[in-house]
Amino acid sequence: MTFFASGVLPLARRSAAALAVLLVAAPLAACSDEGRLVLHSATGDHVFNVEVVDTPESRAQGLMFRQDLADDAGMLFDFKQEREVSFWMQNTFIPLDMIFVGADGVIKTIHVNARPQDTTSIPSQVPVQFVLEIPGGRSEELGIKPGDTMEHDRVGKPLN
Fold first, then answer.
1. What gap in Å lies between CA 92 and CA 124, rounded to an integer?
2. Nearest 5°: CA angle at 95, between 121 and 74?
3. Domain residue extents for the chain
4. How many Å apart are CA 38 and CA 121, to the nearest integer?
5. In angstroms, rounded to a whole number, what is the distance separating the alpha carbons of residues 68 and 61?
6. For residues 128 and 146, what is the distance between their CA atoms, to the nearest angstrom?
7. Inter-residue contact 56 to 78 (CB < 8 Å)
8. CA-to-CA distance for 66 and 4, rounded, in angstroms?
9. What per-residue confidence (pLDDT) applies to 32?
10. How distant is the alpha carbon of residue 128 from its chain centre?
11. Which of 24, 105, 118, 126 has CB atoms 3.0–4.6 Å from 89's, for a disulfide?
12. Distance (Å, rounded) from C-alpha 125 to C-alpha 143?
């Protein structure tokens, strides 16, 4: 009987501790949702589920080799400071809209329907901190224009 009790008790304590950690961590996770982004425009608020890439390696990979992208999905590139950036579509198999956004969340420029596998440079034309890639043509479908705004947890944070 002692063996049974000593084997179960530590397991029960570990389970209770794990549950306590989950109960405390869940509300904290809800406070920060980097996977959700909203574009605010004259046509309304448009919600996207995004992957955030913010390292040189993850930015270099981007959406290359992906075969599809849902209408409400995208990738948010965070350069962590404002600067002029440039993209290309080498090894990218789906057309994309590139929305260039300042650190303040204001959309500066938009490149619509970048052609798959094209190595032509697509510049931001102005300094930006973020680039949002969404399915090609989607920005026009939604009426997104320069001057509209992007809401995301990283917008308005101090630049590194």
1. 18
2. 100
3. 1-31, 36-151
4. 27
5. 15
6. 13
7. no
8. 52
9. 57
10. 15
11. 118
12. 21
Q: Which regions of the chain are under pLDDT 50?
A: 1-31
Compute and round to an integer the Cα radius of gyration of the chain.
21
Contact 35, 49 (CB under 8 A): yes
Cα dihedral 90, 112, 73, 33, rounded to 10, equals 100
Q: Can you tell me the distance from the alpha carbon of 128 to that of 78, in angstroms, rounded to the nearest whole number?
A: 9
User: What is the CA angle 111-116-98, rounded to 5?
Assistant: 20
Distance (Å, rounded) from C-alpha 136 to C-alpha 94?
Answer: 8
Residues 36-151, CATH architecture: Sandwich (2.60)
The candidate with the shortest Cα–Cα distance to 92, out of 122, 61, 124, is 61
Tokens representing residue 132 in the block: 């949002």
Question: Which tokens go with 107?
Answer: 């959309």
Identify the helix (H) or strand (E) that includes residue 146: none
Give all strands (DSSP E) within the chain, no chain letters: 36-41, 44-53, 73-83, 86-87, 96-101, 107-114, 122-123, 128-135, 149-151
Integer angstrom CA distances of residue 52 from 18, 23, 94, 146: 28, 26, 19, 21
